User: What shape does this take?
Amino acid sequence: MKCPLLLMLLLCVSLSRIHAQEVATTDGQVFHSKGLRRVGSNIMVKVITPEGSTIEMGISPARITKVTFPEPPELAKALTAASSGNTTEVLALTGDYLSKESELKDLPGSWWPEMARLRLLSLAASGNDADASALAREIGSLKSPEADSLSRGGTLFASLPSGEKEAVIIGAGSLPKIGGGQGSALAQLALGRALLLKKDYPGALRSFLTIKVFYPSITLLQPSALLGAAHAYIGLKDERRAAESLNDLIESYPLSPLVPEAKKVAETISKS
Assistant: This one.
């Protein structure tokens, strides 16, 4: 009976270490924390003293160089869903985590920026323009080059519901069209939609194809880009290429929530 009990105790210790957070500071100290929370301008770190009691101490965020946050189990699933363009699944997996971890999002080692990136791409691709722009502004508060790119691209979607096409066109022009970050791909998606509203079908097509050709690894945006390209081809009276774009979406991203719409448009083309 002693061995199973010992193994259970060792397992409990092991699990507690896995979920514990190490907080490293600029002066070389490392605190093994059982929990973090933000109070005012300080991060409250809950640590166990050598005597076994628990105390909370405040540390300025400026002193923190790294926190070993446990990787959220939702992240791997969200990345898998993202690879197939399944924006619905990504949105379901990221919402709760971002809400719970928002107050610690700026700490080095936080998984919040990665989860927020996936959610932003999914919101934009799904046409949730207001939510996409709101999250983009929150991401921008992180003050990093990648966050700035995502924020600048994502906030462009705020102008689409009100039809402020020129604001999108000007904003997209401030980001590199080719060779930029994921914010550039977001900007091209917003630009393509704005140009579709202007019935500038050649310009819209160029924007959507820029995502397909130059940002192929951003799979969450590919179904939206392909559907947008199809609508641009239809505007140009090129139904053959429109059908090809729709078939590409349906066959390459069968789990995308845009598939039903793509099938409906393809059926309309086939009957015309």
